[in-house]
Design brief:
heterodimer, A: alpha+beta, Cytochrome-c3 Hydrogenase, chain B, three-stranded antiparallel sheet, 9 strands, globular, B: alpha/beta, Beta Polymerase, domain 2, 6 strands, about 30% strand, elongated
Amino acid sequence: MDDKSKIKEDLDFWATNSEESGWNISSTDEGSQKMLEEEDEKQIKIQTGSDVVDDYVYNEESTDDERMIVNMGPQHPSTHGVLRLQVELEGEVVRRVKPVIGYLHTGMEKTGEELAYFQGPTNTTRMDYLSPLFNELVFSLTTEKLLGIEVPERAKAIRILMTELNRISSHLVALATGGMDIGALSMMIFGFRERELILNFFEKTTGLRMNHNYIRPGGVAADLPDNWQKDVKEILKVIPEKLKDYDEMLLDNPIWQGRLKNVGILTTEECLAYGITGPSLRASGFSWDLRKTQPYSGIENYEFEVPLLTDSDVFSRWRIKVLEIFESLKIVEQVMNTIPKGAYRIQDKKVTPPPRKRLDESMEALIHHFKIYTEGFKVPPGEAYVAVESPRGELGCYIVSDGSSKPYRMHVRGPSFCNLQALPVIMADSPIADAVAAIASLDPVIGDVDR
Amino acid sequence: MSYETINVDINQYYETVENFKKEGYEMMVDLTAVDWYRKREPRFQVVVNLLSVSKNLRVILNVSVPDESLKIPSICEIYPGANFFEREVFDMFGIEFENHPELTRILMPDDWTGNPLRKDYGSGRIPVQFKNAPKVD
């Protein structure tokens, strides 16, 4: 065998991750394409984005001269990332909207098929970057379901504590950016200021402010830091006070009410038809919370209520997030008072790597350590779907395992991806000024939409 | 939370979904596909996740897509929320959904060739030619 074909074979192995040779040599090139093959001026302009190909067609029935198409985004401050909307306007009224997504697509599901299960949370945590711990939780829960293991009680309690704090921080960002879009700039400063408290606690516990990789299959990465109760007590004390300030500022504010009330109606029927879950569904008067109906990670042991509003407009979608923060604080307080002692990782040698100390003493531990970090633990074949209630709705993870140490197929059902389908419904036949309020109320995170 | 997994023949797929909707499964939560390249016949399997919020039930339907046509009926008329999900599966796996209102690529650029989530599509092998860079062959 000469060197050239050896390299080609190596590349094929690297690309397809299979030792089976021959069949994949041509097929792996299927997706490769030469960018800018015909390097003419027009093509370059299109690819660099300075020239936009407008594939939007006018509605055939429209004869009005007032109709025009306005492109909003992908670089627009109130589209919360790189969301692009093609808006058909008739004067000041929005007639049709077409969301164009994919600007942040990085192929995370494909990446997930190439990472072992213990590496998986590193990948999934980057999807919904405002609630990273939920992504880790849902991936870990699915893996554990396939493995058929149950994590210790303390690990469950820590998971609930961290995710509920994450829900608060995520909702605070939603309130802050929502306020900013409507023009309440102080709300933006306030929301991010209070979120800092929670992020500091996350940094202390996990080492990072976002993309934590903290919740892993088999438990959590580390125990809570010393004196963590002090920080949590601080959060429990400060956040309700600040929420009261927000209410004083906004709740009875005539401008705020005028901008939000009876704007962007999304009824229960529309929510169910489009598969919209989370705060938007609860703001339309339908009580559905996976924490109550399909509880996960021992959340059924804590007392809390599911806030419910019936106006189904932007105002109630804003209000319900504030109310949910109070409920999450209740859960956090209960977890703090009742957290059991014990292990924070499952004591299963096949899943949990041994502590560093043991490596010097035990050959067995060294072998397990080596096996877990090179090959990863094997997961029995099967398929599993687990859903949790993320701040934006049902976050699901579907994993198909073929018995190896990597998922055969990993799919994440992002709530923002689904909720975005409601944008045309909300925005149609409403003034253009309400468009940003409607987007902000749905709170889409583009990392979760595009994955 | 446990759920039921049902294998559905492609000819009964549309009717089955319609019946589930009548039985009170109000929501289509998830729709995705699995590529069983050289592992199973037929190659593609579409996975539909239905949720009943009134009865608190979940059901997962597995449908095998025939290799020759790679076509499956669209359920957009029953569940409008299936729109984006079917477009994603079309984009990532190349499975065609019949009677879909707007079957175009959703995540990848419109001029992309290939379907990224297929198993015979290698990752990370796209030669990138930068603007005005000297051509390297």
